[in-house]
Amino acid sequence: MALLDILPGVMMPVSEVPEALRDLWRTAPGVDEGSNKFRAIQSNLILHFGLETSGTEAKEALNRALEFAQRYPCRVICLCPTCEDGEHLMRGKLFSQCFLAGGAKHPVCCEALMLGYAPDDSAFLEHQVSIWLESDLPTYQWFHRVPPARIAESYLPFLKMIRRVTYDSSLDGYNYDQISWPCPRGGRDMADARLLHVRQCLGQFLSAYPASVLTSGLLQTSTCHGKALAGEAYNFSIWLRECLIDAGAAEGISAGVSQVQAGFSVEWHFKGDQSFLMELNDELTTGCIRADFGAGSIEFPLHLKKVSPQLALAEALFF
Questions:
Q1: Least confident range of 22-26, 154-158, 237-241
Q2: Which member of 9, 44, 133, 188 has the greatest number of CB atoms within 10 A?
């Protein structure tokens, strides 16, 4: 079954989607227009699926985009490729949903416009998507299982009109950072955005020590991760190395990354007796820091609030 058929919404010809959207929000005669003031859009979010996306993944990603839209009002546009026989024409779908997050008198309504297309028609996507965008508003793009080679081959010209791109290296690998993104704010890894609370907590702990104490005799760092946290470990190791070098560590310090059975840990290796080890569970919410920077050993328990999927998406797109 084509991905477009799995997602919720009303199927219709592509040309009818804009008019159906206008009808959806049009105020009936005699109805107070004040009741429609809750519909506000601040941006466009393009959710672009790759051919390897499963139906379950697509539904989860769409739900995440709609949850994001509840807090950061936007028009969601889903691009759904298919290689099934007979799928040669673009097809449209419209989905809308209202939430009572602001109370019954102030519901929050979201809309998703979906486009089914064959990969051979990718050259026409820019024209079709530009028609569906809410004009004069910033546009962001989320790639889900779209191979970097495919992006570089077919989608870079279109990305010039995008403010920022996001992707997930824990899901699709690290090759995205080799792309020269043409959008003004470049690309941001969602795996890196999910580390926000970990970086903040570590920074607060280390701020109690002078930078010279942290970097004296430091040789290397090693980050170990469970299978689902490969992107987080890769991004964290790069961030940590850059921070330590800025703090005075030698330019030659290495930052190794390796996979283990489960969990997430970061260890620093020194010439002398100093030590540092941070261990977290797979959820990056509980763990412990054990350190000795020359003034005695310290054990610091960690209880972190997990970054929600919609907050991670906002962090990746906006910050």
A1: 22-26
A2: 44
